[in-house]
Recover the amino acids of this structure.
């Protein structure tokens, strides 16, 4: 994900949420609507989330240090995970509590035009923010479905903003429905029901975000397309005859580690092998520019030795299942 594209979507969401949060709290003060209070806290939490994403993006740009030799790219994953926790605890759980209290102690909504007017304004503002996030995401999504984009994106910011904005829009519709039914029936319980629906929605979105960002924190391999490009770039058919095994790992959204054991002819000299490795590294970086940390280990491939192991791609040195290679 381009940093500019992600930042643009985050800033658009931040501006929209700050304006909406202020309007919702004003509406709650005049109307007493619990949906307005829950939505106000939701927008305030979203504003904090966008601030966290911006902080994470800035911290991720720090140079590598001896203590952190692979840099700070994963800061973006950490802050995105914090966003999911905040959305769950501050947004979702507060809305559930407020909805329960409103159902238990319902009261009529006063000055109905305040919550209705604010909800209409909020829907317009959130639509602008959501439209910006969709536009920026489409630059990277390609032919992937939205589900695939959210699940497999290596940069967390756009999926986070997309789901937050989607949740905000649906939540606003639920709030509008709750307030509308409370006004039509004169029963404030509907306002509480709408608030609980908002809470459930936020908790579900927070869980999805937590699962996806947890996977990124654990470390994900390169996408299938990038791995194919890397494999094609390594083998030159002359000195590097095949890949015995390969592992890739995202050190951050825009930094990839590549480690591979490659087969070379038994009779080649050390100078020839070193030159072939240098050339392979250059081809990898040209094919996949985010492949910035590359380790290529030469070995002599033997079909007979490989056949002895459970993994037919094993090198004579031993099995190549993750965590066991030498």
């Amino acid at each position: 994900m381009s940093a500019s594209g992600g930042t643009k979507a985050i800033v658009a969401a931040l501006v929209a949420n700050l304006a909406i949060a202020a309007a919702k709290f004003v509406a709650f003060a005049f109307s007493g609507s619990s949906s307005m209070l829950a939505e106000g806290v939701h927008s305030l939490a979203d504003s904090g989330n966008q601030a966290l994403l911006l902080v994470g993006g800035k911290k991720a740009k720090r140079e590598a240090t001896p203590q952190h030799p692979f840099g700070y790219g994963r800061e973006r994953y950490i802050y995105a995970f914090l966003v999911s926790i905040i959305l769950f605890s501050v947004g979702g759980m507060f809305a559930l509590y407020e909805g329960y209290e409103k159902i238990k102690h319902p009261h009529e909504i006063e000055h109905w035009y305040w919550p209705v007017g604010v909800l209409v304004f909020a829907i317009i503002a959130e639509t602008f923010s959501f439209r910006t996030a969709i536009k920026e995401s489409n630059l990277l999504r390609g032919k992937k479905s939205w589900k695939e984009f959210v699940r497999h994106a290596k940069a967390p910011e756009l999926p986070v903003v997309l789901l937050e904005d989607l949740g905000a829009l649906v939540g606003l519709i639920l709030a509008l429905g709750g307030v509308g039914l409370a006004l039509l029936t004169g029963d404030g319980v509907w306002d509480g029901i709408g608030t609980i629906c908002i809470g459930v929605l936020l908790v579900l979105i927070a869980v999805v975000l937590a699962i996806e960002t947890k996977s990124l924190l654990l470390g994900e391999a390169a996408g299938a397309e990038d791995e194919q490009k890397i494999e094609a770039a390594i083998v030159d058919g002359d000195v590097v005859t095949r890949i015995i095994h390969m592992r890739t790992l995202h050190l951050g959204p825009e930094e990839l580690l590549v480690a591979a054991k490659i087969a070379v002819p038994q009779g080649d000299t050390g100078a020839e092998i070193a030159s072939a490795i240098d050339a392979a590294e250059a081809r990898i970086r040209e094919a996949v520019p985010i492949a910035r940390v590359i380790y290529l280990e030469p070995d002599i491939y033997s079909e007979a030795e490989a056949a002895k192991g459970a993994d037919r791609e094993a090198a004579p040195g031993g099995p190549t299942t993750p965590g066991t290679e030498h």
About this structure: Residues 82 and 295 are 32 Å apart (CA to CA). Confidence is low (pLDDT under 50) at residues 1-5, 314-326.
